[in-house]
């Protein structure tokens, strides 16, 4: 037996060394496009739309604040110096600012247009005139200059679809350029910089949560076993588990994304459960006088099946996340489920092998004097027995109250929902939202069903309809800035008429529009027009920015927009399609409710099958599910009562909680089955089960809930709520398993049913 143990340890250590080497190469990933609905027609449409035009997220915004106003010679000089440095950064294709903005102006018909700057930087005497012209231009206010005139926005366009490595490099170079600048305020936003910030924060939190989880585990083991070997052996098992799963992820090419940063924490706390049950049972058998071999065999016989079932049900809970349409959530479910089962395998290979090879540990003899648990558990059981019906009525009341709370849950999300309002990145994005047109992209495709004029890309009647639509989007939808074929045509028309602001309108005649189209190249507007008109005028683009009001608000706005389009627009000529990154993220969030239902139904079904196979009693199946459903209802009720929105991050709470919380129920009914097989009556079996498993169930819940509650220190609100609510669910679950479940069994399981067994 010792030779087998040595071989097992040699193989495990060898494989662990290999996977540890691979795990150091694992990469961090924050590709937000993976959060789009997978294999979805709207996602496919967006990718096709993006190929025709461009991405709505390939830019970096730099906000500069000057409390004296932007018409300040020193401010303009420093701004131009900064722009020159940004233009030299690789991956930057163009830099736009109010200080380098120019517009073509034709003084009179037939003359060559000249480029008029927005600000005559060398002639301050013209600044008053420049200011009046700038603040009357809807293309500039809220985009390149704030409404109060004390801040500007520099737009640095990047190469499309740059890699994460390039994004990281770009973010570093941007930070270096801005580090020495002296402005009243400097702000930066964009996919590249945001992605770099997220990855750095993920790396920091991964290390922090791994260390805190390890400390928690060590402290728990010390107070549980008070022996050196009782600490280092379990820690070795959970460390191996974490190394194995990260190594496996690297081997299959999976990076650590925002969701997977909590994977080591889950591995530590969930994997520890099996180890604790094995060691506790092994030490109990040694105290009862069994030798090492006999104690291990008896431990395997009584603990192996229940711990396998708990690991299996926990894995099923995570695998139920496969119902999600979001790739990172599905990956989280798969790898966490694999990790849970790896923890079980390592617990039943490494741990027994170590116990076989090392000397019999010294264990304290059983103390005749009753300890805390010996005193309190019988008293608690007697109280449950007396108050069984009151417990059931109270549980019913809590369930009804929770259902009311669930009815108050809002399905809602924001683009930066995972960052607290005090977070620096969140503050920078808020600056652009408050001072400019916002940072939430708006994309609408107009599909023209048939060309109305072969000589022009877009007919005048179509432009007039789009103009009417733009008025609605500005006033009712809340879009602060829009660019479309209408915008380009109006701009050229203004240029043709000496740059007068009153000529920023559509032409009244088709001949005028035809002339404008011919002059697009001359006015350097052809490239801009190509960004809003594709397929020979069959696909048109309306692009803009807005404040991030939340998906719930935009769902209502989209319904109103649909009604407006159907009643006010000529639907025989055109139809519309809202697309873009924000729209796809909102759609993903809207699908989470269905994923929760399917995930929980799968978990319920698996538990029902397990309990059914153990007892062949439909009543026992129902009674076993009730203590696990009520904690889920309570958490849902709390979310509704405290205004915690249902979104991608919080939707995982329910399936994860159920998969882990049901472990206590399985340990309880597994022990109940053993006691019944020994010939005890149902009431005797319930009492004996309560007194023998109550302590273990309570202690494992402490480490599980404690491990999840460490996640409340995360700067990501999704991780914060996941840790808080899962931790609370496990606490509610242990209360239900140790109070409600015995009460249910006392009331609904009759003695005669036991006699038939």
Please give the structural blueprint.
Layout: H1 2-23, H2 41-52, E1 59-65, H3 73-87, E2 92-96, E3 102-105, E4 114-117, H4 127-134, E5 151-158, H5 164-179, E6 185-190, H6 191-225, H7 229-251, H8 263-287, H9 292-319, H10 327-347, H11 350-357, H12 372-386, H13 388-407, H14 424-435, E7 440-448, H15 460-477, E8 479-483, H16 485-496, H17 510-518, H18 526-530, E9 533-534, E10 539-546, H19 551-568, E11 574-579, H20 581-590, H21 592-615, H22 618-641, H23 648-677, H24 682-709, H25 717-748, H26 751-756
Summarize the structure in words:
By secondary structure, the chain is α+β, with helices and mostly antiparallel strands. Helix content is 63%, strand content 8%. It has helices at 2-23, 41-52, 73-87, 127-134, 164-179, 191-225, 229-251, 263-287, 292-319, 327-347, 350-357, 372-386, 388-407, 424-435, 460-477, 485-496, 510-518, 526-530, 551-568, 581-590, 592-615, 618-641, 648-677, 682-709, 717-748, 751-756, and strands spanning 59-65, 92-96, 102-105, 114-117, 151-158, 185-190, 440-448, 479-483, 533-534, 539-546, 574-579. Strands 7, 8, 9, 10 and 11 form a five-stranded antiparallel β-sheet that branches. α8 packs parallel to α10 (327-347). The longest helix has 35 residues, at 191-225. The protein is elongated.
């Amino acid at each position: 037996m010792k030779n087998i143990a040595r071989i097992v340890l040699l193989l495990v250590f060898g494989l662990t060394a290999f996977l540890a080497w691979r795990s150091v190469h694992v990469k961090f990933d924050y590709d937000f496009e993976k959060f789009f609905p997978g294999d979805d027609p709207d996602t496919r449409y967006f990718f096709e739309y993006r190929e025709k035009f461009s991405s709505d997220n390939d830019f970096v915004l730099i906000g500069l604040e000057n409390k004296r106003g932007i018409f300040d010679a020193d401010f303009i000089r420093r701004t131009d110096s900064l722009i020159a440095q940004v233009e030299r950064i690789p991956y930057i294709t163009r830099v736009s600012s109010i200080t380098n903005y120019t517009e073509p102006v034709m003084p009179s018909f037939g003359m060559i247009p000249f480029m008029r700057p927005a600000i005559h930087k060398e002639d301050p005497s013209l600044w008053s005139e420049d200011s009046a012209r700038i603040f009357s231009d809807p293309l500039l206010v809220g985009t390149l200059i704030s409404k109060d005139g004390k801040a500007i926005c520099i737009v640095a366009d990047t190469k499309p679809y740059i890699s994460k490595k390039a994004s990281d490099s770009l973010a570093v170079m941007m930070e270096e350029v801005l580090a020495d600048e002296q402005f009243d305020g400097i702000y930066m936003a964009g996919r590249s910089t945001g992605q770099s910030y997220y990855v750095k924060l993920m790396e920091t939190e991964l290390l922090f949560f791994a260390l805190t989880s390890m400390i928690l585990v060590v402290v728990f083991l010390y107070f549980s076993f008070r022996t050196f070997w009782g600490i280092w052996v379990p820690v070795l098992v959970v460390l191996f588990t974490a190394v194995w799963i990260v190594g496996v992820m690297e081997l299959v090419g999976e990076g650590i994304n925002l969701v997977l940063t909590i994977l080591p924490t889950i591995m530590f706390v969930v994997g520890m459960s099996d180890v604790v049950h094995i060691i506790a049972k092994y030490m109990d058998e040694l105290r009862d006088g069994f030798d090492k071999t006999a104690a291990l065999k008896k431990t395997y016989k009584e603990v192996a099946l229940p711990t396998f079932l708990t690991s299996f049900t926990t894995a099923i809970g995570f695998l139920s996340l496969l119902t999600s349409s979001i790739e990172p959530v599905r990956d989280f479910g798969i790898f966490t489920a694999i990790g849970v089962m790896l923890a079980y395998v390592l617990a039943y290979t490494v741990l027994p092998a170590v116990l076989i090879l090392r000397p019999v540990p010294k264990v304290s003899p059983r103390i005749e004097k009753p300890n805390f648990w010996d005193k309190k558990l019988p008293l608690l059981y007697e109280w449950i027995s007396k108050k069984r019906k009151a417990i059931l009525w109270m549980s019913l009341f809590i369930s009804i109250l929770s259902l009311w709370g669930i009815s108050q849950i809002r399905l809602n999300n924001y683009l930066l929902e995972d960052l607290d309002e005090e977070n620096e990145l969140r503050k920078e994005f808020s600056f652009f939202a408050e001072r400019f047109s916002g940072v939430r992209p708006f994309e609408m495709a107009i599909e023209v069903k048939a060309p109305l004029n072969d000589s022009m890309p877009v007919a005048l009647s179509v432009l007039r309809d789009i103009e009417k639509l733009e008025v609605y989007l500005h006033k009712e939808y809340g879009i602060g800035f829009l660019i479309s074929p209408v915008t380009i045509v109006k701009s050229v028309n203004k240029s043709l008429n000496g740059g007068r602001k009153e000529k920023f309108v559509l032409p009244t005649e088709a001949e005028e529009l035809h002339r404008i189209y011919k002059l697009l190249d001359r006015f350097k507007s052809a490239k801009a027009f190509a960004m809003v008109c594709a397929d020979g005028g069959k696909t048109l683009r309306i692009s803009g920015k807005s404040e991030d009001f939340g998906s719930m608000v935009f769902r209502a706005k989209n319904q109103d927009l649909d009604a407006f389009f159907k009643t006010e627009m000529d639907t025989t000529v055109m139809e519309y399609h809202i697309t873009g990154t924000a729209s796809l993220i909102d759609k993903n969030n809207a699908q989470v409710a269905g994923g929760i239902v399917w995930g929980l139904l799968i978990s319920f079904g698996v538990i029902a099958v397990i309990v059914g196979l153990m007892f062949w009693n439909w009543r026992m199946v129902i009674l076993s599910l009730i203590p696990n459903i009520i904690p889920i209802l309570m958490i849902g009720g709390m979310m509704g009562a405290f205004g915690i929105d249902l979104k991608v991050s919080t939707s995982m709470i329910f399936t994860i909680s159920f998969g882990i919380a049901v472990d206590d129920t399985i340990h309880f009914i597994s022990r109940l089955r053993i006691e019944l097989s020994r010939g005890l009556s149902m009431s005797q079996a319930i009492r004996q089960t309560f007194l023998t498993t109550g302590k273990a169930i309570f202690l494992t819940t402490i480490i599980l809930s404690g491990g999840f509650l460490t996640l409340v220190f995360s700067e990501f609100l999704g991780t914060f709520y996941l840790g808080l609510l899962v931790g609370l669910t496990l606490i509610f679950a242990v209360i239900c398993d140790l109070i409600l479940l015995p009460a249910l069994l006392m009331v609904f399981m009759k003695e005669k049913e036991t006699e038939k067994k």
